[in-house]
Structure formats: C-alpha cells, structure tokens
Amino acid sequence: MPNEHHTNAKLWGGGFDHGTDTWMDDFHASIRFDRRLYRQDILGSIAHATMLGEQGIIPIIDADAIVSGLRGILADADAGKIAWRVDAEDIHMNVESLLTERIGEAGQRLHTGRSRNDQVALDTRMFVKDACAAAIARLKSLAETMLAIADKHTDSIMPGYTHLQRAQPVTLAHHMMAYVEMLLRDIERFAHARESADVMPLGSGALAGTTYPIDRQRVAELLGFKRISANSLDAVSDRDFALDAMYACSVCMAHLSRLSEEIALWSSLEFRFITISDAYATGSSMMPQKKNPDAAELVRGKTGRVYGDLLALLVAMKGLPLAYNKDMQEDKEPLFDALDTLDGCLNALDRMLATAAFHTQRMSRRASEGFTNATDAADYLTGKGMPFRQAHETVGGIVRACARRECGITDMTLDELREFSPLFDEDVYDELSMKACVARRNLPGGPAAEAVEAAIAKARQRLEAY
Questions:
Q1: pLDDT > 90: what percent of the chain?
Q2: What are phi and psi of 158, to 5 degrees?
C-alpha cells in the first residue's frame, strides 16, 4: 500500500479519530474548479448572515462582522489576492476558514442553520442564472448581426437546398432568417433554464431543513430569487436546472454547427458564396494557397464536446438515491465547460459573420443554373389548367432534355417548350425568372422581400422582449 499521510483540523472532523490521507484530500477536493463560484458563495453567505442577525439567531454584532469580513474577502478575490487552499477542500470551507482567520470567533457562526449541501445548490443556481443571462446576451448579439445581413440582402437571390442539391430560389436574407429563428428558440430555452434555476434552496440544510427560526423568504429577497424550494430533500439533490442549461447549450450548438458547416461549404472554391475575413481564417504550413475556415470548423467540432458535457451529468445523476451524494460534485466541470464553450462559439461566429463578404452575384448565378425554377414551371402549367401530377411529369421531361443540352429551362425556345405542352406561352420567361419565382412566394414565412422584411421586424420585436 502507498504510504498514508493524514491531515487534521477539518471543519467537519469532530467525529473522526484520524485525519484524511493527503492523497484523498487532493482526490476529493473541488477547489480547483468550484473556486469559480467564489462570488456566488460569498454573496449567498452575506445574505445568510444578514438574515441570521435579523432573526436574532446570532448576535447582530457578529452578523455585522461576518458581512464586513465577507465583503473584504470578495474584494480581495476580485483582485486576485487570495490563494485558495486544496486542504480546505472546496470554495465554501475556503471562504469560511479565511473569514474566521480574519474576524475570529464570529466567523464560526456563519454556518449556523445551513449545510454545504444547500449552500452548493444555492451557489450553482446563482451561477446558472447569471450564465443563462450572459448566453441570452450573446445570442441576441449574433441574432442582430444576422438581422443586419438580412436587412441588406432581401433581394439577393441564392439557391435553396434539400439533400445538398439545388432546389428552389430563395434569398440570402431568407436563409439568414432561418438561423435567426433558431437563435430565438435558443433564447427561449435559456430563459426557461434561468427560470428553472430561480429557486432559492438555502434553508434545506443537509436534507431535512433546520431547527433554527430562519427566514427563507428574506434570503430569497436579498439574493433576488423569485421563489423558495418546496422540499428540502429535492432542493439539495436537484440538478435539473443545470441539465436545462446544458440542454439549451447542446441544442444551440447544434444550430451553430449547422451554420458552421454551411460557412465551410460556402467558403470553398466549389461554392464561393462567402469570403471570411483574414482575421478569422488560417493558412496552411505547406500549401500557400490555402485559406481555411478554422473558426467555423472549431465550432462544428466543439459541438460534440458540449453534447458530452450534457451526457456526463445525465449519467452522473441517473441512479442517485435521495438526497445529496458526492457524485453530484461532478456537475460543475461539465456545466462550466458547456457554458464556456458555447460562449466562445457564439462570439466566434458573431465576429466572423460581421466581417464576412457575401458574393451575391455568384449566388444568383448558381440559383439560375440548377433548375431551381422547375417547381414554378410545374405551377405555371397547373395555372393553365393541367393537373399538378401531369405538370410535374412534363417538367421532369423538360429538365432531362435541358440536362442533356446543358441549358436552363428558360434557355429553350417557346417552340421547344411547346413540344412538351402547348400550354406554354410567351409569359413563361417572365414567370420563370429567379426574381419572379421568389416574389411570388409572398406569404408569411416565405422568401419574398416583403415577407422577409416583416419577419425581420417581428424578430426584432421578439429580441426586445429579452
């Protein structure tokens, strides 16, 4: 067996004959990552101490000393002046130990009426509330960048795709607005996750509450929570709010990954729809002609990482009996990573899109080259009285003939078109122009300029609500 070295003087060590092995100290300590919660932990402790003093549970003079000491620790932590100690295990005991060192015996009264179980639940909920608000701000910024692009390109025709095959003409604005809709749903998910986290658990103790006459509503008021938890067992063992936030991260990353894939495709020589700013691309160490869309590719790659973070916490929580278990210490690293990764990806895409150049003339040419007006040709014949299925088959024959001749539908003469159907007339050329194909789809949610302008205005109204 390895040599055992034991440490003593744990704040919880009164019932132990021996201290923990130093290896165990390092293994189960969480200060390396939960020190990130120092602000939430200190603010929560300030609210708790304030309430204890107001309720007469501890002397007001001690409560005032605790609050003053905590504010000093917060200022020092913000300034990077505190060296957090692994032997104190976590952020909670680091703060309490430091407080007691600074103000003496009064610091030992801080933990009256609470447990680290409800304390960490409080800290994590406060963190998630702030992180969700930050994610919403990032999403709004990216959505505004896309709306600005859409504003400029309501008449910029491009091919729309299904199965990565040119399908029907749309506009760049309409394409951007599809992603704006995704981002708006992402904002709604983060708003829900923030609401889910907005429950104050302090007062639940380790699992069964406390016998002290605490005022939970007062603590909730001081910390800006809308409501308090309804069940002490659930309050200390619930991480649904963290899962909600990480699920919101995961779905958002799916959307960002799809956008990144299109940016990578569009910047290729085969598409040439977009040129990424040199500031957000890289070159090859071997091939001098290369300009790689690395920012987009990294976003696409980091999506799997965020999915893994969500799965890690789901698996950690799946078999836990009530109430708190040490397994739940594993919630923070994936939670932090998912939120940090999303934040970086949103920032990267926002910067990249804001500085990108869109080659709209090439987009328009590609739309006109891919039989994207074939559906409109079938609709044209239907409007002349031909059943749609027959019109579909007729236009399919025209497309096959055009493919053999390497030309578009409107490159055929009227006599050639009439070989397929006598219903074709001179107006077919105007009716099948890319501009006309898009303009006819002037319905809510459609690609016509008027419909897209209405969608842009509505999207801006929805963004203002958050």
A1: 90
A2: -145, 160
Q: Is 334 exposed, middle or buried (0-12, 13-18, 19+ CB in 10 A)?
A: buried
The one catalytic residue among 48, 115, 284, 421? 284
Mean pLDDT of the region 56-79: 98
Rounded Cα–Cα distance for residues 140 and 252 (Å) = 13
Cβ contacts of 240 within 8 Å, gap of 6 or more: 196
**pLDDT confidence of 28, banded at 50, 70, 90?**
low
How confident is the model over 216-238, as a mean pLDDT? Answer: 98
Residues of the chain with pLDDT > 70, as a percent, come to 94
153 is annotated as an active-site residue = no
Helices and strands, counts by H and E, the chain: 19, 8
Provide CB contacts within 8 A for 407, sequence distance 6+: none
Q: Which CATH architecture has domain 117-214+223-364?
A: Up-down Bundle (1.20)
Q: What per-residue confidence (pLDDT) applies to 332?
A: 96
Four-way CATH pick for 24-112: 3.10.560.10, 1.10.275.10, 3.40.640.10, 3.40.50.300: 1.10.275.10
pLDDT digits (tens, 9 = 90+) for 162-179: 999 999 999 999 999 999
Residue count of the chain: 466
Cα 157 to chain centroid, rounded: 30
Q: Specify whether the CB–CB gap between 139 and 462 falls below 8 A.
A: no
Instruction: State the DSSP code for 159.
Output: E
Its sign, for the CA torsion 8, 10, 16, 19, is negative
Residue 290 has what pLDDT? 87
Compute the average pLDDT of residues 121-146.
98
Task: Give the whole-angstrom CA distance, residue 5 versus residue 354.
Answer: 57
Q: Which of 28, 163, 250, 359 is catalytic?
A: 163
| Cα→Cα distances 401→368, 390, 392, 451, Å | 16, 17, 14, 35
Tokens 């390895």 correspond to 2
User: Which fold, 374-432?
Assistant: Ribonucleotide Reductase Protein R1; domain 1 (1.10.40)
Place of tokens 């120092």: 38
Q: Supply the pTM of this predicted model.
A: 0.92
Q: Catalytic annotation on 267?
A: no
